[in-house]
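lol ok so funny story. i was supposed to be doing the assay writeup but got distracted and ended up predicting the structure for this chain instead. priorities right. anyway since i did it might as well share w the group, maybe its usefull for someone
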Amino acid sequence: MNTFEVLKKEEVSAKNQAVFENLEKSLGFVPNIYAAMAYSDNALKDYLQFSNIKTSLSPIEKEVVDLAISQVNGCRYCQSAHTAISKMKGLSENQILELRHGKATWDKKLNTLSLISKEIALTKGKVDKATIEAFYNVGYTKENMVDLVMAVGIITVTNTFHNLTNIEIDFPVAQSI
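and the output, tada:
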């Protein structure tokens, strides 16, 4: 059961109406999760600024993190949204399912990123030393580690918000695993 209704542009503050207009221009629509964040006069704009920070992770690497963390956190909205986004970025359904399991058998570097992402979520950051060493051994840097933590934080905010509100999913619903 939804605990928040999805707001329409005419129901939000003038500040959020401007954000809605920008989302409509850039994405073609306002995702329901963002529309629900508009109950706050500040949260939507702040979240979008946070989620659009520059990162040393590639767009595919960012999806690896988002899929692994959303699976651990049980967020169906984000599993669905990031499945759709990952397909647009060229990942196959099988690759996406693997990433949601915290692995990427087709790419050693992405596999390591997926594994550490999953472990971060499961252990609340108390990751095994061997996992951290593997992260650096495949070519990731300390800058990448910092950006990984930021990426985990960003997706965790969205996962938590959806899990609390159960906003209607407005993407093709991802396969259950």
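The mean pLDDT is 96. Residues 9-51 form one domain.
back to the writeup now i swear
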